[in-house]
Every structure is written in structure tokens, then in C-alpha cells.
Write a structure and sequence with these properties.
Layout: H1 6-19, H2 26-37, H3 44-54, H4 60-72, E1 77-79, E2 87-89, E3 96-100, E4 106-109, H5 112-115, H6 121-124, E5 135-138, H7 141-146
Parallel strand pairs: 3-5
Antiparallel strand pairs: 1-2, 3-4
């Protein structure tokens, strides 16, 4: 999904909203644009601060509920944060994350071997696995260099 242009992604967003009978409002489009242009897996607060520049009267609650609605219809994913605030990932393709335990940075990566991990039979008989995501916790290069 990351290879699509901004216009293509917004068009797909609008089509998805129509399928789910969600109104297309300028605020929703603005929130989605901020989200897909971010490279940082932003929190609702980061999205709110960016969207507020274009829509000064928008509330944090509106931004947060909108992001959760987007997650509910499959346009974004809520990212594992290990106790921090929810973070949102607009890249819904199969990929994995490196999570820096010092600075909190989340880095996307792909590795076919993780996609091929076999799910134990005990799980597949009682649970339908829809996607797989591996999260590696550690220290990024910048935090490692500081030590």
C-alpha cells in the first residue's frame, strides 16, 4: 500500500468509507491525509496537533474516535505499544515491526520467513488467524549509539 500515491490512497479511503456507509467529511479526509503522510506510526495526539492546523475547531475526541473508526473498518491498524499511548499504522499490508524500547520508535520491516511461520494446530482449531505480525523489541541504531 505504501507504493500508492497520496491521491490513490485518498481515493481508496473514500471508496472504503462509502462501502461502510461513513460520511466523507473534510475533517475525516484531513485526519486520514495526516496519518498516511506520517512515517512515525503517530499517536492520536500527534494526528490531532497536525489536523488542528487545518481545522482549528476540531477536538481531540473527534480525532481519536475517527482513528478508532478507521481501524474498525480496516483502513489503519492499531500498533502494539507496550504500555504507551495507542499508535496507528496506515500501512495495512503484511509487515512486521521493530520497537525501540528506549525512544519508542517503531520501524517497519518485511521478512518472508515470519509470514511463513506455522500456527500451532491447537490454535487453528479454535481460532481463525487472519494476519500475522511479529514485533521485535530492542534498541534502534541511534539509541544503541548513545550507550
Amino acid at each position: 500500500m505504501q507504493n500508492k500515491t497520496l491521491a490513490q490512497r485518498v481515493k481508496l479511503f473514500i471508496e472504503t468509507c462509502h462501502r461502510h456507509r461513513l460520511k466523507i467529511t473534510p475533517q475525516r479526509v484531513g485526519i486520514y491525509r495526516v496519518l498516511i503522510q506520517s512515517k512515525r506510526h503517530p499517536t492520536a495526539d500527534l494526528v490531532f496537533r497536525a489536523v488542528k492546523k487545518e481545522f482549528p475547531n476540531i477536538s481531540f475526541d473527534t480525532v481519536n474516535r475517527t482513528l478508532l473508526t478507521f481501524a474498525g473498518i480496516g483502513m489503519v491498524e492499531v500498533v502494539e505499544t507496550f504500555g504507551g499511548p495507542k499508535r496507528f499504522d496506515p500501512d495495512i499490508s503484511d509487515h512486521h515491526h521493530l520497537h525501540c524500547m528506549a525512544c519508542g520508535r517503531i520501524i517497519d520491516f518485511e521478512y518472508e520467513g515470519y509470514a511463513l511461520l506455522e500456527v500451532p494446530k491447537a490454535i487453528t482449531t479454535t481460532f481463525k488467524v487472519i494476519s500475522r505480525r511479529v514485533v521485535l523489541k530492542g534498541l534502534c541504531d541511534a539509541c544503541t549509539a548513545k550507550q
